[in-house]
């Protein structure tokens, strides 16, 4: 278990370039299984989850060449399906959430797809029904081994159909789309998720020869094709990292420029930060955050009632930024409610913020009321353990704003999704030391 030692209370300054998007990368990498032709992908983040998926694809027989930082070619022309039945695969597949998305492409191209219960953050129930109901709708036979927690789908052929998803699952929609592009006939997916990750996936699949209409909406109409070909793809900047750096700048009263953010793909993100009083300035394709020397003031609604920040499927506000919003609210002028609708265990990390002196009432597992200090009292340094990726980064931001030296254990949770975070933050003035565990 590695650890960060953080000396808080220093202002940061400078420019930071967001990495390529983690959740997009996990989808895009799985899509290389859909063709025997070469696919070149740029801006792949160098993070634990993505590297685990690349290693898994390699074991599946995908030929992988690293051609530069974040740039790889992939060629899935000789897939080793036996690996899917190995004990090794049962271990590898469990290591991350994104591995679930190999199932759709494997089913579509080779007639079978297996996966052990995938990993990812322990932030509440994370069921997979939407994925498998989608495959069943396309004509696949499903089985689940309860002892091994091992899922499997098989089909001689997939046939397009109409389906109404029970929830707009992000990875579920990606998985079903990747199966449907090679199905016979037309598939309509209603209540589809439409995060930029999915829009990017659909655009890439269309460049490979797929026929997907409705990209960016909650109804995708997919006309199946016999075969897909190669393409080039570049990952968008990671919008969750961008939100994390906005929060970091505000809470440490630092002046930061977040470069090349792909503004038009950020949806509600800039506005939600503005609602809690943070100045988010557009400069070309950069975000400029001035030093919030006089703090930031939470806006009320027009009728004067208290602000609630909650998540919703895209184009709603992403649940992956709520932990960061909650953390920066602890120093806001005013109060707000954070309502995490999707995941029931994601707010428990507030205990650590309360230990640091934050004023938070956890109303129930989904809702917390935060009463901001307006910097009249700084958070106290402490020792904590990162429970999940976004709570981990939130605690890191809290520690950077706190008085004294904090310790965060289990930072592998942070490394799962943030590339070289300590080095990149040191470059803008943060005092962070990484101590490797045994
Ligand atoms: C690898 C990856 O891409 N992970 C992301 C993906 O996870 P993932 O695809 O696993 O998450 P899902 O979209 O399936 O949904 C997660 C949870 O939210 C609930 N749910 C979902 C849709 C909905 O309309 N209402 C609702 O309550 C589901 O019941 C489920 O419990 O999407 C999540 C939701 O944006 C993000 O937090 C994860 O970072
Ligand atoms: C919950 C997240 O990731 P995963 O789905 O990989 O656990 C996240 O990125 O915030």
From TrEMBL:
<dbReference type="InterPro" id="IPR013792">
    <property type="entry name" value="RNA3'P_cycl/enolpyr_Trfase_a/b"/>
</dbReference>
<dbReference type="InterPro" id="IPR005750">
    <property type="entry name" value="UDP_GlcNAc_COvinyl_MurA"/>
</dbReference>
<dbReference type="Pfam" id="PF00275">
    <property type="entry name" value="EPSP_synthase"/>
</dbReference>
<dbReference type="InterPro" id="IPR036968">
    <property type="entry name" value="Enolpyruvate_Tfrase_sf"/>
</dbReference>
<feature type="domain" description="Enolpyruvate transferase">
    <location>
        <begin position="7"/>
        <end position="425"/>
    </location>
</feature>
<keyword id="KW-0808">Transferase</keyword>
<dbReference type="InterPro" id="IPR001986">
    <property type="entry name" value="Enolpyruvate_Tfrase_dom"/>
</dbReference>
<dbReference type="InterPro" id="IPR050068">
    <property type="entry name" value="MurA_subfamily"/>
</dbReference>
<dbReference type="GO" id="GO:0008760">
    <property type="term" value="F:UDP-N-acetylglucosamine 1-carboxyvinyltransferase activity"/>
</dbReference>
<protein>
    <recommendedName>
        <fullName>UDP-N-acetylglucosamine 1-carboxyvinyltransferase</fullName>
        <ecNumber>2.5.1.7</ecNumber>
    </recommendedName>
</protein>
<keyword id="KW-0131">Cell cycle</keyword>
<feature type="binding site">
    <location>
        <begin position="22"/>
        <end position="23"/>
    </location>
    <ligand>
        <name>phosphoenolpyruvate</name>
    </ligand>
</feature>
<keyword id="KW-0961">Cell wall biogenesis/degradation</keyword>
<feature type="binding site">
    <location>
        <position position="320"/>
    </location>
    <ligand>
        <name>UDP-N-acetyl-alpha-D-glucosamine</name>
    </ligand>
</feature>
<keyword id="KW-0132">Cell division</keyword>
<feature type="binding site">
    <location>
        <position position="342"/>
    </location>
    <ligand>
        <name>UDP-N-acetyl-alpha-D-glucosamine</name>
    </ligand>
</feature>
<keyword id="KW-0963">Cytoplasm</keyword>
<comment type="similarity">
    <text>Belongs to the EPSP synthase family. MurA subfamily.</text>
</comment>
<feature type="binding site">
    <location>
        <position position="97"/>
    </location>
    <ligand>
        <name>UDP-N-acetyl-alpha-D-glucosamine</name>
    </ligand>
</feature>
<feature type="active site" description="Proton donor">
    <location>
        <position position="121"/>
    </location>
</feature>
<comment type="pathway">
    <text>Cell wall biogenesis; peptidoglycan biosynthesis.</text>
</comment>
<comment type="function">
    <text>Cell wall formation. Adds enolpyruvyl to UDP-N-acetylglucosamine.</text>
</comment>
<keyword id="KW-0133">Cell shape</keyword>
<keyword id="KW-0573">Peptidoglycan synthesis</keyword>
């Amino acid at each position: 278990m590695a650890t960060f030692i953080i000396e808080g209370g220093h202002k940061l300054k400078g420019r930071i370039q967001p990495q390529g998007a983690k959740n997009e990368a996990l989808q895009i990498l799985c899509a290389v299984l859909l063709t025997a032709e070469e696919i070149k992908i740029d801006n792949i983040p160098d993070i634990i989850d993505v590297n685990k998926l690349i290693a898994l694809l390699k074991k599946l027989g995908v030929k992988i060449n690293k051609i530069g930082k974040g740039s790889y070619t992939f060629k899935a022309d000789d897939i080793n399906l036996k690996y899917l039945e190995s004990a090794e695969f049962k271990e590898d597949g469990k290591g991350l959430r994104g591995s679930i998305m190999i199932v759709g492409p494997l089913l579509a191209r080779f007639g079978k797809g297996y996966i052990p219960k995938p990993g990812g953050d322990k932030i509440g129930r994370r069921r997979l029904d939407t994925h498998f109901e989608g495959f069943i709708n396309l004509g696949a036979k499903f089985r689940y081994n309860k002892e091994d927690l091992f899922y499997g789908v098989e089909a001689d052929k997939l046939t397009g159909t109409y389906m109404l998803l029970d929830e707009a699952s992000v990875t579920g929609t990606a998985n079903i789309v990747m199966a449907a592009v090679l199905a016979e006939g037309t598939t309509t997916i209603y209540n589809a998720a439409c995060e930029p990750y999915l829009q990017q996936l659909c655009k890439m699949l269309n460049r490979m020869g797929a026929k997907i209409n409705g990209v960016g909406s909650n109804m995708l109409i997919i006309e199946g094709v016999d075969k897909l070909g190669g393409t080039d793809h570049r990952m968008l900047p990671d919008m969750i990292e961008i939100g994390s750096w906005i929060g970091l700048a505000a809470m440490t009263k630092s002046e930061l420029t977040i470069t090349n953010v792909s503004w038009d793909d950020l949806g509600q993100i800039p506005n939600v930060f503005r609602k809690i009083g943070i100045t988010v300035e557009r400069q070309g394709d950069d975000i400029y955050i001035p030093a919030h020397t006089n703090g930031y003031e939470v806006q009320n609604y027009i009728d004067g009632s208290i602000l609630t920040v909650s998540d919703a499927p895209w184009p709603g506000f992403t649940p992956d930024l709520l932990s960061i919003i909650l953390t920066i609210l602890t120093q806001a002028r005013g109060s707000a409610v954070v309502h995490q609708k999707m995941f029931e265990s994601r707010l428990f990390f507030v205990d650590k913020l309360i230990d640091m002196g934050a004023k938070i009432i956890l109303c129930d597992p989904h809702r917390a009321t935060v009463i901001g200090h307006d910097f009249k009292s700084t958070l106290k340094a402490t020792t904590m353990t990162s429970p999940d990726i976004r709570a981990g980064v939130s605690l890191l931001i809290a520690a950077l704003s706190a008085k004294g030296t904090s310790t965060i254990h289990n930072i592998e949770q942070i490394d799962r999704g943030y590339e070289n975070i300590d080095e990149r933050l040191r470059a803008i003035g943060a005092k962070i030391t990484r101590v490797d565990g045994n």
